[in-house]
Amino acid sequence: MNKAIFCDLDKSLFDNNRNFSPLTLETINLIQAKGIPFIPSTARAAKNAIEVARQLNVDKYGGFMLYQTMVVAFIHLKQIVFY
To answer: How many CB atoms lie within 10 A of CB 60?
Structure first.
C-alpha cells in the first residue's frame, strides 16, 4: 500500500505565531526519511508557500505540495515545476 500524508498549514501545523514547533519539524522529517511523502497544502501566495515547504524539507525529499489548484513538484532545490 502506498502512503502519503497531506496537511493544511494554517491552523494545523503552525503555532499561534505562525511558526513550526521543533517537534513538528522533527516529526515531518522522520516521516519523509522513511519514504512517506509529506504533502503540505495551502492557499497562500506561491512565494510564501514555497518558502514554507522548504522549511519542512519537502524539496530535499523530492516531495510535492498542493498550492491552490495546482500541484507543485520540487524537482531540485532551484527548480520548481507547476502542474
So the answer is: 13
